[in-house]
């Protein structure tokens, strides 16, 4: 029985993944990478692991005060902000284009500033 | 006991009642969604009065949920037959009110979407953290207890399960009282007496809720509560109400004795606007004196409806008391510089006013709706009706009279 | 070892070398930027000393500097729902009419009640004594606001979009003075300290006996607000 299942999976999985890659009829997100080759890790690794890298660094920085490491959200934003709006969110911009395609909700922007080089103004209360 | 099968009319009436409950729940959820979407800017809560109307409702429900289980405990732990017959209903009410109260607390959070974080991140020094364990634990224990009561094969386990629920319930209310008791910063809280005070409040409020639900259930089935049951339970309610009075008196009298707390007591008891009105008129007169008269005065206590009215007044008094305790306690300014007059753009040294907005009120009401709907559906589909041994009750009546 | 790790390690060893060569010579008096990749250390405790005798009643330079630095810029209809990380309190003794003014903010207690009561551990104290809110796990229950004796915390009542990239803050979380942790980690002073026209605020390491702040506290009478609570505050006052 187990062998049958293994064989089935071996047979079916590559086909499934292949069809997902090949899928001509499936619309793809438009991902604009402005500064190609400047990333902190190869594209494949970033695609797979960026969330873990960010989450790990987030706790290191927030709770322990470790600064200046390569995986930083602000670092991502500085490099990947869209040309037209200077932001990583909004349609066709780096973070949102892919995340809305993959239907993975982001709540980073409830607190973090998605615009590169943004300078906040202060108002005296 | 011979119950007539439900009539068609009764069935329609039940759907109407259940639909009414569901509508209240839906309104509460809509209010929570609105608050979540717009932020707490749409509520009357602010940086000084950080806990408002939802917390008054939620704490009432949670405290009363623990107290309503008292009925079952008297039966299972202390072996009183009359109360044992009421244990299943008591357990159901406990679960229903706990669910309502917790829903309100959770939906009022600034980030209600992070409920999972509240479950997975635990700070052992936080009283809130303890409660995150105590509340779900209560659900589990009471569910098991109900199972031992209602499944015949499990009956032998009723006593240990009832005992566990009894202990857990005392811990739970100690935890709720300690949320305030451990707050060193604020004049109104920060008192060890709050934990036992919350336990005794839970006894009174829980029993009051139980009496009303019991009466409604009997009336629905065209029955009346037997005189012996009524006498027993009304006397117990009176004792609890008097005990709450004692604890509140101790709490305020100790405060009045401390020079540093006199200004706060003056605010709550004399010149604090709505708070003295709710304290003297709402809690003391309507919620304590009047119910005691209704329960004990020979002429009044035998009147039909006097026990239910007294129970209703106790619940009204509970809301007044919680409003004074929670909102009043925050409205009074923090004494950052004791003995000094302070002023700032952040309202230091100023008494705050609170006007609850509709969404937060409706969210609280939604919690009541959850408890109501769960109870209504529960008693309809399962057998929660107390089945007394009439001969035994008649005998009891002869002894007590 | 990545490039950055090595750089951090080298910088640290260089620092050690200097200390070994020239003991007693203090190259930097106030803060020193922590090398990249290094966590905050228990050997330091950041604190502040406010000389209230120099603090003018109408002056709000520290408050404005804080608002600019930390992007506290939202318009809130009800001022009681607006966030205030630092505020000026005017204090008057009703017995003799003596008046003075001081800035009040998170006191960065060594025993912070907000950290004790936080159900998730979002309220936290960093190794170097800075008390912060980890907004990633803050659920917005406001228990810390109930527990704080200084009314130092604010709840964000509405959605925000104009945050400073270095100071994330947002809807539904509780926040308070961070002692400008993003500046301190770069070796700078908090914005309020830098902005004070009277030089009434002194920032430094309470654990370093040779720092200005530690020496001033050792030599002059200073006060902790609500010292009766024994919270061992990191912010101290002079002249109250």
Summarize the structure.
Chain A is mainly α. Chain A has helices at residues 2-22, 43-64, 73-80, 94-102. Helices cover 48% and strands 0% of the residues of chain A.
Main pleated-sheet profile of chain B: none
Number of domain units of chain B? 1
Q: Strand-and-helix sequence of chain A, N→C?
A: HHHH
What integer is the average pLDDT of chain A? Answer: 82
Q: How many individual helices of chain A?
A: 4
Main interface by residue count: B-C, 50 and 56 residues
Task: Tell me the series of helices and strands of chain B, N- to C-terminal.
Answer: HHHHHHHHHHHHHHEHH
CATH architecture term of chain B: Up-down Bundle
CATH superfamily (homologous) name of chain B: Formate dehydrogenase/DMSO reductase domain
Structural class label of chain B: mainly alpha
Helix content range of chain A? 40-55%
- Tell me the Rg of chain B in angstroms: 22 Å
What's the average pLDDT of chain B? 92
Overall outline of chain A: globular
Can you give keywords for this protein?
heterotrimer, A: 125 residues, 4 helices, globular, C: alpha+beta, Alpha-Beta Plaits, three-stranded mixed sheet, two-stranded antiparallel ribbon, 23% helix
Task: Explain what this protein looks like in three dimensions.
- The complex is a heterotrimer of chains A (125), B (401) and C (240).
- Chain A is an all-alpha fold and 125 residues long.
- Chain A has a domain at 27-110.
- Helices cover 48% and strands 0% of the residues of chain A.
- Chain C is α+β, with helices and mostly antiparallel strands.
- Chain C has a single domain (41-238), classed as 2-Layer Sandwich (Alpha-Beta Plaits), CATH 3.30.70.20.
- Helix content of chain C is 23%, strand content 16%.
- Chain C has a 3-stranded mixed sheet.
- The longest helix of chain C is centred in the first third of the chain and has 19 residues, at 3-21.
- Chain C is globular.
- Mean pLDDT of chain C is 88; it is low at 1-30.
- At the B-C interface, helix 6, helix 7 and strand 1 of B face strand 2, helix 3, helix 4 and strand 6 of C.
């Amino acid at each position: 029985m187990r062998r049958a299942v293994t064989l089935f999976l071996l047979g079916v999985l590559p086909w499934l993944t292949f069809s997902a890659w090949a899928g001509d009829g499936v619309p793809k997100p438009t991902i604009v990478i402005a500064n190609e080759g400047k990333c902190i890790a190869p594209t494949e690794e970033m695609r797979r692991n960026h969330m873990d890298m960010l989450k790990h660094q987030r706790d290191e920085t927030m709770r322990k005060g470790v600064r200046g490491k390569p995986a930083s959200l602000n670092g991502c934003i500085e490099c990947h902000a869209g040309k037209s709006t200077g932001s990583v969110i909004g349609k066709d911009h780096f973070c949102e284009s892919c995340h809305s395609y993959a239907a993975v909700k982001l709540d980073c922007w409830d607190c973090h500033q998605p615009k590169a080089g943004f300078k906040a103004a202060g108002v005296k209360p | 006991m011979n119950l007539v099968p439900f009539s068609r009319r009764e069935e329609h009436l039940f759907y109407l009642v259940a639909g009414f409950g569901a509508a209240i729940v839906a309104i509460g959820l809509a209010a929570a969604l609105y608050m979540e979407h717009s932020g707490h800017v749409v509520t009357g809560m602010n940086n000084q009065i950080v806990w408002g109307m939802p917390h008054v409702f939620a704490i009432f429900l949670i405290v009363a949920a623990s107290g309503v289980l008292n009925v079952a405990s008297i039966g299972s732990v202390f072996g009183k037959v009359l109360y044992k017959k009421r244990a299943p209903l008591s357990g159901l009410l406990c679960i229903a009110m706990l669910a309502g109260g917790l829903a309100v607390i959770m939906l009022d959070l600034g980030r209600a979407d992070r409920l999972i974080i509240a479950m997975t991140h635990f700070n052992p020094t936080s009283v809130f953290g303890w409660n995150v364990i105590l509340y779900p634990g209560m659900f589990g224990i009471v569910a098991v207890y109900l199972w031992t009561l209602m499944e015949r094969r499990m009956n032998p386990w009723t006593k240990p399960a009832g005992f566990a629920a009894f202990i857990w319930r005392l811990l739970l209310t100690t935890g709720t009282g300690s949320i305030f008791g451990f707050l060193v910063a604020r004049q109104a809280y920060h008192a060890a007496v709050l934990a036992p005070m919350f336990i005794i409040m839970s006894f009174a409020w829980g029993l009051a809720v139980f009496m009303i639900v019991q009466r409604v259930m009997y009336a629905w089935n065209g029955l009346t509560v037997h005189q012996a049951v009524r006498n027993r339970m009304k006397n117990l309610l009176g004792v609890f109400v008097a005990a709450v009075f004692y604890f509140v008196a101790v709490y305020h009298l100790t405060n009045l004795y401390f020079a540093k707390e006199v200004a706060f007591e003056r605010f709550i008891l004399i010149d604090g606007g709505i708070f003295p009105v709710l304290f003297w008129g709402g809690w003391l007169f309507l919620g304590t004196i009047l119910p005691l008269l209704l329960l004990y005065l020979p002429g009044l206590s035998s009147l039909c409806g006097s026990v239910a009215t007294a129970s209703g007044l106790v619940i009204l008094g509970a809301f007044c008391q919680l409003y004074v305790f929670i909102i009043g306690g925050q409205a009074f300014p923090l004494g950052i510089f004791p003995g000094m007059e302070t002023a700032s753009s952040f309202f230091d040294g100023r008494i705050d006013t609170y006007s609850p907005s509709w969404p937060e009120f409706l969210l609280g009401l939604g919690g009541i709706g959850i408890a109501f709907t769960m109870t209504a559906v529960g008693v309809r589909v399962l057998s929660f009706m107390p089945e007394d041994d009439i001969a035994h009750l008649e005998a009891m009546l002869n002894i007590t009279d | 070892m990545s490039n950055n790790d090595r750089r951090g390690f080298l910088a640290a060893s260089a620092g050690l070398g200097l200390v070994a060569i020239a003991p007693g010579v203090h190259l930097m008096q106030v803060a020193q930027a922590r090398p990249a990749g290094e966590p905050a250390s228990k050997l330091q405790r950041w604190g502040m000393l406010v000389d209230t005798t120099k603090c003018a009643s109408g002056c709000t330079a520290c408050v404005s500097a804080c608002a600019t630095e930390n992007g506290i810029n939202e318009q809130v209809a009800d001022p009681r729902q607006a966030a205030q990380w630092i505020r000026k309190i005017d204090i008057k003794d009703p017995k003799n009419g003596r008046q003075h003014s001081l800035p009040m903010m998170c006191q960065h207690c060594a025993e912070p009640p907000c950290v004790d009561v936080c159900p998730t551990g979002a309220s936290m104290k960093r190794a170097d004594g800075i008390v912060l809110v980890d907004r990633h796990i803050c659920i917005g229950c406001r228990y810390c606001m109930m527990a704080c004796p200084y009314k130092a915390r604010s709840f964000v009542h509405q959605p925000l979009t104009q945050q400073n990239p270095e100071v994330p803050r947002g809807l539904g979380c509780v926040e308070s003075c961070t002692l400008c942790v993003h500046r301190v980690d770069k070796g700078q002073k908090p914005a309020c300290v830098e902005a004070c026209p009277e030089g009434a605020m002194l920032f430094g390491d309470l654990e370093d006996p040779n720092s200005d702040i530690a020496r001033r506290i050792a030599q002059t009478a200073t006060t902790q607000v609500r010292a009766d609570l024994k919270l061992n505050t990191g912010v101290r006052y002079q002249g109250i």
